[in-house]
Amino acid sequence: MTDLPNGVERREFDGRERLATEGEPVYGEPTDGTWRAWDPNRSKLGAMFELGFETVFDGGPDERVLYLGAASGTTVGHVADFSGPTYAVEFAPRPARDLVSVAESRSRLFPLLADARLPEQYAHVVEADIDVIVQDVATRGQARVAIENRRFLADDGRLVLAVKARSEDVTAAPTDVFDRVRDQLSETYEILEARRLDEFHTDHLGIVARPR
Amino acid sequence: MSDRTGAWFEDVTRHETAASATAIRSGSHAEPAPWPELAVESGAASDEDDYYDWLHDATVVATADAAQELERADDRQLVHAVRAMDDCRRTANELAERLAEWAGTVDDDPGTGVAYARRIVADETAIEDETITSLAERVVDLEDEALALEERLDRVAPTVAPNLVALADPILAARLISLAGSLEALAKQPSGTIQVLGAEDALFAHLRGHAPSPKHGVIYTHEAVRGTAPANRGSAARAVAGKLAIAARVDHYAGDRRPELERELAARIETIQARDGATESTEAGTDD
């Protein structure tokens, strides 16, 4: 089992070892003092930690993160708990409202209502040389989104990507979709690790990559 | 400052939260830059922590405001647009009928409907009476207005209710929201109500005890309902309404896309339509 980043621990909740971070509870998850459980069934990144991916997060206040597809803030709240400045991009207004309330109690979590396919919409706010980009967008063209957002990533930074096969093409076989995404991605990124998340999320592929 | 950097904080100062939020919302820039450093260097923020505190206040306000405005605006806009479209079309058809009756008294080659009005307008020599051609122009304008509204619905509906639009079409999605009053109201309707939205007259006749219960309201225009044999249409309508109810709830409460809904509905309709052949041959005509 690989090391977890600083600020992420395995702790016992109701007799079961679970991932946890320190911060204000967000979605009624179990807590233990200041620690709150991180549900891998509700979070692709949480699932990747559970499955032992080398996600290359260090954790700590100097780590800068760009999170694309923050949705209601379930996962990005945990990321902000263990990282430094965290930019959270979400396109849909309804979940963005919940994201704002997650951000209110986290002083280094910056919510942005913008389209992750159009980085110009937020490049005046998100700083350069980001350490980790986490991407979990449910739209077509997920490889494109990763490539477009390369501009934010430090040369030694990492991309942590969850690909949802159904968002790409509902009718195609997930393995074909994943092959296509990996192909497209490899113009810009070198894939370090890629495994399916089926244990927690059906038809999803987890990818860790670094810029070429 | 001589060189413009494109930073969000360029034209605002540290404690103007509202103006800072506006700058976040309205700005854009091609490439990122080390904004925190630039802010400290230019004296906009006293140090990096100060910068991040400022950014936090500004982004929270900007995103809360933007989300609220979009949410508020869009489903109301949709309701107005679909009602205006229906009004334009109904009026165009009514006037077209009147026009056809009148023009028929002077035209050797009379027609019917909006298409006839278009012909009168296109061919200036067809009818000499300017009052009649002017009336035809009104009909055509109204129909064009309805088409423009329809285009707008096609554009706006997917941002308001992406799952509903994926299952139905933009117009039907907008009609359902309009009949319920808002997306929130639709999300709170049970699927049995959604099934008969738009068939209120028939429903109340049924409740008064002198009519059968309606099988469907406006969802009749859904291809899965219309494309199913009459005997099984009730089942199809129920299946469609069930998925639409879920889609409306996802659109209102969660907002993400759930493509599996389309697949599930397609599979269900396939099963129901497979019965069509069987029911017709035995003339059972049951509505399970």
Structural summary, described in words:
In chain A, strand 10 (189-196) and strand 11 form a beta hairpin. Chain A is built from 6 helices and 11 strands. By secondary structure, chain A is α/β, with parallel strands linked by helices. Helices cover 24% and strands 31% of the residues of chain A. Chain A has one domain (40-211): Vaccinia Virus protein VP39 (Rossmann fold, 3-Layer(aba) Sandwich), CATH 3.40.50. In chain A, helix 4 (142-148) packs parallel to helix 6. Chain B is mostly helical and 288 residues long. Chain B folds into 3 domains: 17-72, no CATH class; 74-158; 161-282, Nop domain (Serum Albumin, Chain A, Domain 1, Orthogonal Bundle). Helices cover 69% and strands 0% of the residues of chain B. Chain B has helices at 17-26, 35-41, 48-103, 113-122, 130-160, 162-167, 170-180, 183-187, 191-196, 200-207, 223-226, 233-254, 260-282. The longest helix of chain B is centred in the N-terminal third of the chain and has 56 residues, at 48-103. Chain B starts with 16 loop residues before the first helix and ends in a 6-residue tail after the last helix. Residues 280-288 of chain B have low confidence and may be disordered. Chains A and B meet through helix 3 and strand 7 of A and helix 3, helix 12 and helix 13 of B. Chain B: InterPro entries: Helix_hairpin_bin_sf, Nop56/Nop58, Nop_C, Nop_dom, Nop_dom_sf. Chain B: This is Pre-mRNA processing ribonucleoprotein, binding domain-containing protein. Chain B: Residues 160-274 form the Nop domain.
